[in-house]
Design goal:
The structure holds two protein chains of two kinds.
Chain A: E1 33-37, H1 47-51, E2 57-61, E3 73-77, H2 87-91, E4 97-101
Chain B: E1 6-12, H1 13-23, E2 28-31, H2 38-49, E3 56-59, H3 63-75, E4 80-84, H4 86-101, E5 107-112, H5 126-130, E6 137-140, H6 144-158, E7 167-172, E8 180-186, H7 188-194, H8 218-250, E9 257-260, E10 267-272, H9 275-288, E11 293-298, E12 300-302, H10 306-313, E13 318-323, H11 334-344, E14 354-358, H12 368-384, E15 391-392
Classes of the chains: A mainly beta, B alpha/beta.
Amino acid sequence: MSRFPSWKELPLGATILDAGNAVEYETGQWRSERPVTDETKCVACGVCWALCPDNSRVMYKRKNPSPQALTDFYYDFNAFYCKGCGICAQECPMGAITMVPEER
Amino acid sequence: MTKARHKRVALEVSLAISEAVKLLDVDVISAYPITPQTHIVEGLAEMVNNGELDAEFIPVESEHTAMSACVGAAAVGARAFTATNSQGLALMSEILYIASGLRLPIVMVVVNRSLSAPLSIWGDHSDIMANRDIGWIQFFAENGQEALDLVVIAYRVAEDERVVLPAVINIDGFTLSHVIEPVLVPDQRSVLEFAPHRVHQITMDPDEPVMMGPVGIPEIYTEAKKAQNVALVSSRAVIDEAFDEFGKVFGRRYRAVESYRADGAEIVLVTMGGISETAMTAVDRMRRRGQKVGLIRLRVWRPFPFEDIRDALLEARAVAVLDRALSFGGCGGPVASEIRSALYNTKAKRKPPVYSFIGALSGRDFTSDEFARLVDRVRDYARRGILPEYEMVGVRE
């Protein structure tokens, strides 16, 4: 969201007129730790994708696919929405995700 | 603009309110019975059942739900009404803030009754004072005619495009709700011309979905509250306009602050609600004895009429406020506290002392003699320079 409305611009009762506009809200700003995925360990099982409360685990094409890789994609995070809760890192059966402090 | 026709009938004040709701062609009534509000909704239930009023009557299991149903009804653009008091109002409290926050023009009558414990079904203002900051427009009626008229006025103001806020009309439990008075009932055409159903709130519509009551993130909440407060404060101009227009059509002229023989008065009493009529009798008797005593009655409690209070009271030598509620461990009387606040922020060189009295709790009689004794006490305090924070009157030691 580029700019928040002034009190005069706000619709009555702070009602949201364009339903579904939560997609515009960058919840990624709340993050204090980011999930860093080791692409070589990820077997693309999808456990993180299934458990992420913010639909922030996304399929990416492997950058350096090893000959042993079973899939040509792996899971990484969507930086715009990921709040850094760490559920993916906790649940990853391959130990492929590490939570790293955000430093800006 | 044609003058309204009236029928003069003897009506219990509760039923005069039911009659007003019928004249206003309300769409949804949702209520839970509680003494002494019952007769209002019983009357309405009967009207709906008899086909006199084409409305949905939603009987609910609690006041929390009664107000929730009103919120839902108003959110689809229906004209909604409910009535309650005391414990019921307390239970409603959560939703009262939501109704005003969502800017839904619901109208409610509160038949003022004490809060438990100890349990009491009798009248005072402790219920509405506990819900003073709900963000609703708040009126106080002094008799049956005013109760009926203020319901009509409340819908017009609440639904006005410049306001879009809920409104509450307070009437005293039993001493108003259960007495039979001669009431002028206006014709329905005039009522609906004066207060046609207007929908300026944002409404729910499957074809144009909106999200009502979303999370107000820190970047939004303050702006939402500012907008809500500005709407409430500026509703005063709309209330005055409605009072004026009402006077022209119906022949009864109301003001936010009513003054009674207060010109040149040295001691001015301040009251709110039905007890004001006793106070007027008391003022007449004291004036006959040559005492310079007057009375100010608040008809509009929210938005609080600061300017009118300054105009009415700054010239007085002393002000005596009778509150029918107690702010525990705080200012004492909530009305007195507001009046002090109005008088403190002024450049006037001389400000009258404000004496705060708490009395007439839980339906205890407060007679014109007691008003006279109150005035004697204020005169004595003023002479001796005593200024108590507040005082409960008529308490057995």
